Amino acid sequence: MSAGKLITVSFRLPFRFSVVRSRLVTSPSVGGLATALRSYFDNGAKNEFSSIHWIGVCDLSRKVFEKICGDENIKKDGITMHPVFQSRQMKEKFYDGFCNSVLWPLFLYFPSFAVYKKEFFEEYVTANKLMLEKILEVYEPGDTVWVHDYHWMLLPSLLREKFPDARIGFFLHIPFPSFELYRFLPKSWRTQIILGLMGADVIGFQTDEFVRHFVESVHRTLPPVVQNKSAFKINDRSTLVQSFSISIDYEKFNRACKSSEIKKNAKRIREKLKATKLILSVDRLDYTKAIYNRLEGFEMFLAQNPQYKEKVSYILLLVPTRESILKYKENKANVESLISRINGTYGTLGWAPIVYQHQSVDFKKLVALYSSADVALIVPSRDGMNLVAKEYISCRSNSDGVLILSETAGAASELLDAIIVNSNDRQEIADTLVKALNMSREDQKRRIEKMQEHIRQNDVLGWANDFLNSFDKIIEQVETEA
Ligand code: GDG
C-alpha cells in the first residue's frame, strides 16, 4: 500500500455532531458504511497509512460549527474529520433530491419512486464539485483517496482531472441495477455518471452480479471501449472493476456477546418479554427494507398458528432515516399503523406480539438484542449487502439461532446456510417462521457454525485490504502491457 495519507470521502462523517451546553458532542454514525469503515480504522488501517482523514457533510451549519470549534478539524479515534457544509438548497436538491429521490429508488429497484428533476442533477454536479474543493485542501501527491457510495459518483473524474497520477478508489455500497433500470436515467446523466466513475483506478461493488450490471451499462452507454478481463481502458488509463463483499469486525461482535454483562442483558430482555421465543429485526426505517411485507408475513404467521399466542415476541428495531422525504414519511405511517393493527388484533393484556422501537440503541444493547433472539428476520426487498445479517450470526455464542434472509440481499450470495426467502411472499415468510422456530438444535448449530467461519475468514479488515491492495493489480497489469 502507500505511505501517504488515506482520505476517505463519504456523505456522512463517522461521527454525528451536536451541540450541548455550548460544547461539541460526538456520537457514532449509525449505518452500514460508517460501521464498517470505523471497524477497519480501529484495526489495520493506521499501520498502512501515515494518517487517516475523513471528509463528509457536517450535521451542523458552518456558523454553529465555527462558533464552537473555530476553524479546527476534529480528531477522534485517530481519524481527522474534515466537515463540508451544505446549504439548505443543497440538502433539498442534492441529498433529498438526486441522491435519495432518484439514485436510491432507481438503484434499489423502486423506479416508480424516482423523480427526474433537472435541478436535482444540476445540484448533484455542484455538490460533487464542492466536495472536490475540500479534497484539494487535504490531498497531497502520494495520498490515496477512497470515495464511497452513490452521492459522489462524479468525483473520481473531477479529481483525476486535477491529479492525473492520484490513487483513487470508489466503492458502491448499494446495488448497481441492471441496464434496463439504469437506462431510466436521461442519457446525458447516465453517461456523466459512468464517465465520472471511470476516473477511479478501482471501482468496487458488493457482488459479482452488480459488476456484471455495471459492465453491461458501460458498454451500452459509452462509445466502444476496450475491456481487458476486469479492466476498462479509456484514454490510456485502466480502471479495474471488481466485487469486494463488505463485512464486519467479527471478533468485536463475537467477543462482546460472550461478556458476562451482555449475557446478563440478553437474559433480562428475554425475562422482560416473557415470550418463550424471540424474533428480531434491525433496520433503518427505509422502504427498501420491506418492513411492511415482513409484518404482513408475521401477521399471517399469527393468524395461522394460534398455538404461538403469548409465546412469541417480535422485536422490531427501526432506526430513523431520511425523515424529510415524503416516501419515507408515508412508509413510516403505513408501518406504524400495521404494527398497531397487529398488536390490537392479536395482543392480550400482558402481551404485545410486536415490540417496536423507533430509535437507535448503543453497541452493547445491540449485541444484547442479537444475543437474545432465536430468529433474525432480515428480509429487505433489495440490499447491497446487509451487515445486520452478519452481525446477528457473529453474536450467537452458543451456535444456536436461525437467520431468515431474503434472496435479494447481497449477503444471500455469501450466507448460504441462512433460510432464504422472497420478500414479497408473505406466505413463505409465515411458513419459514414456523420452520425456524422448530429447527432442531443440531441443524441450527451446523448452519450457524458454517456461517460464523465464513464471516470470521472474510471480515471487514479483509474487505478493506483486498480493495486497497487491488491498486497494485492495476499497476501490474499496466507494467505487463508495457
Ligand atoms: C448500506 C447498504 C450495505 C443499525 N441500527 C443500529 C445500528 N445499526 C447498524 C448495524 C449495521 C448498520 O447500522 C446497518 O447496515 P446495513 O448493511 O444493514 O444497512 P444500510 O444502513 O442500509 O447500509 C447495505 C451497507 O451500506 C454496507 O456497505 O450492507 O446494503 O444499504 O452495522 O449494526 N448500530 C447501533 N445502534 C442501532 O440502533 N449501534
Q: Can you characterise this structure?
A:
The chain is α/β, with parallel strands linked by helices and 482 residues long. It has two domains: 6-246 and 462-481, Rossmann fold (3-Layer(aba) Sandwich), CATH 3.40.50; 250-458, Rossmann fold, CATH 3.40.50.2000. The chain is 47% helix and 20% strand. Helix 13 links the parallel strand 14 and strand 15 (354-357). Helix 11 crosses helix 14 and helix 12 (291-304) runs parallel beside helix 13 (326-346). The longest helix is centred in the last third of the chain and has 22 residues, at 460-481. GDP-alpha-D-glucose binds at residues 30-33, 35-36, 173-174, 246, 282, 284, 317, 319, 360-363, 366, 383-388, 391.
List its traits.
482 residues; alpha/beta; Rossmann fold; ten-stranded mixed beta sheet; six-stranded parallel beta sheet; globular; binds GDP-alpha-D-glucose
Write the layout of secondary structure elements.
Blueprint lengths: L5 E7 L2 E6 L2 E6 L3 H11 L2 H4 L3 E6 L4 H8 L4 E3 L2 E6 L3 H20 L10 H21 L5 E5 L6 H8 L4 E5 L7 H4 L4 H11 L4 E4 L2 H14 L4 E3 L2 E4 L2 E7 L6 H8 L2 H14 L3 E8 L6 H14 L7 E8 L6 H21 L7 E4 L5 H10 L2 E4 L8 H8 L7 E5 L12 E3 L4 H12 L3 H17 L2 H22 L1
Parallel strand pairs: 1-4, 1-7, 4-6, 7-8, 8-9, 9-12, 13-14, 13-16, 14-15, 16-17, 17-18
Antiparallel strand pairs: 2-3, 5-6, 10-11, 11-12
Helix pairs in contact: 4-5, 11-14, 12-13, 12-16
